[in-house]
């Protein structure tokens, strides 16, 4: 929080964001996430007179999945057409979703990790209904890019980079650095690249380089990387269609709110992060294999019963000028 009634807004162009993380107690099927979303600074209080709670009480959430399970959107209960979830007693789906640009700095367990910009054709928090939400078979018809443009080292062909006992050793704490590079190296320039590096045991570890047949070598997220990745994997390029890094740059100009969560996945068992996804496709198909977990893993009933004490620890959060937040 910036103060008692407003969220801290992050403007990260030509800046870096750094934190320490311990994922050693996060098995398959869990996601310890740290990310930014384009929420309103006051949680929507000034825009919606019926919202008397505001940021002080955590209102105004949105993300690029346009979630329908939020029970309070734009100062109103999301009760119209509310349908309980068939497999989650604590959740359900209402008529409306709440959408906005999302920068996933870190989605991970001790088997796999990804960082992913998701962009939208709208700026700021937007309450969707109908086609704008991009639900079901209309996934690419909504206002937000739900797939995003992910950099997951395992998916990009380097399976020995991140994990227990590997180059980035997830059996112990390490530092994650994300840098937002602009075309003219100023905070007002166009966002052109999102870089990643790690620090562990006093050693700076550069991000892995892609190793995908027919694809040039990349070690960061750029429009060129995203276009090449979508082509190599045969995925629809909704990231480009929704504006690519230019849209993310506008969101960073507006300012974004930091969110941290630990969750399991009642829709896809987190296979999209740490296993083969979709599981109906061969693991040898480029882009399908995202981590070493079994396709039978990640079921919330199993995760919650077998690993009830799972945890992730985020600490030592810093942001500032490029190169200023970590020892090197």
What does the model show?
The chain is an alpha+beta fold and 328 residues long. It has 5 helices and 17 strands. It has helices at 223-233, 238-241, 244-254, 271-274, 300-306, and strands at residues 15-22, 30-37, 72-73, 76-77, 83-84, 92-93, 97-99, 102-108, 113-118, 126-128, 162-163, 168-169, 174-182, 191-200, 203-206, 257-264, 313-321. Strands 15-14-13-1-17 form a 5-stranded antiparallel sheet. Strands 9-8-2-16 form a 4-stranded antiparallel sheet. Strand 3 (72-73) and strand 4 form a beta hairpin. It is globular. The model has no long low-confidence stretch (mean pLDDT 98).
Give a nutshell description of this structure.
The protein is of the alpha+beta class. The protein is built from five helices and 17 strands.
How many strand segments? 17
Task: Enumerate how many helices there are, as a single number.
Answer: 5
Q: How would you describe the shape?
A: globular
Proportion of helical residues: 10-25%
Arrangement of strands in the largest sheet: 15-14-13-1-17
User: What order do the SSEs take from the amino end to the carboxyl end, as H and E?
Assistant: EEEEEEEEEEEEEEEHHHEHHE
